[in-house]
Amino acid sequence: MANIAAKRVKREIKEVVKGGEGSLKLEVVSNSWTDLLGEITGPPDTPYEGGIFKLEIKIPETYPFTPPKVRFITKIWHPNVSSVTGAICLDILKDQWAAALTLRTVMLSIQALLAAAEPNDPQDAVVAKQYIENQQMFTLTARHWTNIYAEGPSGVWEFNQKVQLLLEMGVDEHKARVALSTYNWDVEDATEQLFS
Amino acid sequence: MSAESDMEYSDNDGDEYDYYGEVDDCDMDTVDQSKTDPEYFLFSCLRVEEVEKLLNESIELLSNSLQITPSLAKVILHAYEWNAQEIINKYKENANEVLIFSRVKSCVPSAPGNSNGSHCAVCADTNLLQKFSALACGHYFCNDCWAMHFEVQIMQGVSNTIQCMAPECEVRAPEDFVLSHVTKPSVRDRYQQFMFKDHVKSHPQLRFCPGPNCQWLFRAWVREGARRVECQGCELLTCFSCGAPHHAPTDCITIRLWLTKCADDSETANYISANTKDCPKCQICIEKNGGCNHMQCGSCRHDFCWVCLGDWKCHGSEYYECSRYKEDPNLASDSQHAQAREALKKYLHYYERWENHARSLKLEEQTLACLKSRINQKVMAGEGTWIDWQYLWDSAKLLKRCRYTLQYTYPFAYYMDNGPRKELFEYQQAQLEAEIENLSWKVERAETTDRGDLENQMDIAEKRRTTLLKDFLDININNASSSKV
Predict the structure, then answer these.
(1) Which of B106, B114, B119, B122 is the mutation pick for testing A, counting most A CBs within 10 A?
(2) Fewer C-beta neighbours within 10 Å, C or N terminus of chain A?
(3) What is the pLDDT of residue B200?
(4) Where are the domains of chain B?
(5) Nearest CA-CA partner of A170 in A144, A148, A191
(6) Which residues of B touch A64 (CB under 8 A)?
(7) Per its UniProt record, what InterPro entries does this chain match (chain A) (predicted)?
(8) What is the C-alpha to C-alpha distance for residues A181 and A73, in angstroms, rounded to an integer?
(9) pTM of the model
(10) Which CATH code for domain B252-472?
(11) Interface confidence (ipTM) of the complex
(12) Of B292, B297, B300, B322, which is the active-site residue?
């Protein structure tokens, strides 16, 4: 089976290169067809626009009869992606996988997921809650994360300041950002959670 | 269905305590059972071969009347929960709809076929020598890929619901298609095993006995409410409706709530209940160091009951008050903390009794084993024959049955709303509890001369049990109300 998997992966890397979509990139890591690195750009008209998101793609022995394991390496604020582990909640990576799907279609689906979140089937409950209750706050937060972690355009200046404020209090930068994002950028609430 | 509707109950002189009895005398007692046993439920215990025969009959019926292959019939029966008649009727109306619903056919028009077999989208091979095949949806793939696809799915435990390899195509692969591609005998065997399990699971009249390594199956026609089925093989008592241990008078939803709750909270509950209790008089912390529930506080010499913390003097005189849960009336200042503590106290009250009876049941299982050897000794010593001692054996079995019901009254009471109905329930529960303890005491000390007394006690305990079940087991309540209409 490994034979098919290797052959498929080689062909699929070519397919992505040939496909001509500038928004996708796929390459092998350390010459092994089982570990791949994917890259997608944030879709236009979304808070992820201008960002570049790295994906860790692991190919199982039984590929393509079982789905590849994909997660975000780049930290991202999205209802269907864990802000902690980068795990993705996407049907085609689970029970809706079909052997005829390819890594290119998987990456395109993830890109589509960034443009159209499914807050009712969340991977990250905190983000999903914000998405449902305060969409504007969600958009600003997601843009801020894109700016910090995915080389996106600069976001709300005030957010950076708030992170800086907690940083000076001795909090780890990422932890501070998570706490602030969770509490709608309310410094007091975030501090309380961090120091309780 | 008829078994349910002709269930009527009468108070008759119950010497039918043998109805649990042996399998052989089942038929003889059938009529009596349905009248006297509030838990009576018509079911049969089947072997794997018998179930296979049963399933095959349905498959044959459908494939003959619709002129389709047996493996296609299996896919359709699985989708329609084995209701062959419904399928036949619907098929006559609209065959296409039945095929789409069972996912034999695709709901979108079949794909433009590349049946000439030039290219397989899965292995990316363009091998002209390779053979291609497709399901009804027309998605062609090479046979090697199909074989590997099936193998992977089967090893993951999928059988009836293996789908086509094309994206978003939900068409299912019938048995003959799968087996024509899979050649490894071990994988084929696994597939057949999983198929059988899947068929049983999708069949509303069938259920596997959940006993460890048990090969028996149950068949019954009603699948709601607490329904007792006893396995012929491992003697396990389960509920046909939900597969949990048999739980009358508690219903299926409540017992699930209770069992989850116990699984979540029992560690804390065990620790608190096992380690500390405060003396009801001087509040000093007391650790129980013996089996007896009659406690005397080492500090203030107050005598009390370990289970209910009530004064020992007024304990045990009237009926067994200890089983009734009383809410603390002085709970006016209900701060959140006090409420949480009260909730925990309430839960622990019921949990302790539930656990206690479960433990007693296990101990009485041992008593049953001892009893056999005790009877043997008596018989060998010339003190009566086996028949003379039969009553003792029966009484131990009856004791087990009564205590079992008693154990399952505690989750029922825990989730009951306060009110006269709960009071009535707890009254009956207390009565049952008292009679069971009497019986237990007598069984442990029985000699031949006690026979009349013991049989009397058996009768009383069983009466209490059936009365409680008649009044509170909801399958009976529903029957009673529907028979009035």
Answers:
(1) B122
(2) C
(3) 93
(4) 48-102, 252-472
(5) A191
(6) 122
(7) UBA, UBA-like_sf, UBC, UBCD4_UBA, UBQ-conjugating_AS, UBQ-conjugating_enzyme/RWD
(8) 19
(9) 0.71
(10) 1.20.120.1750
(11) 0.82
(12) B292
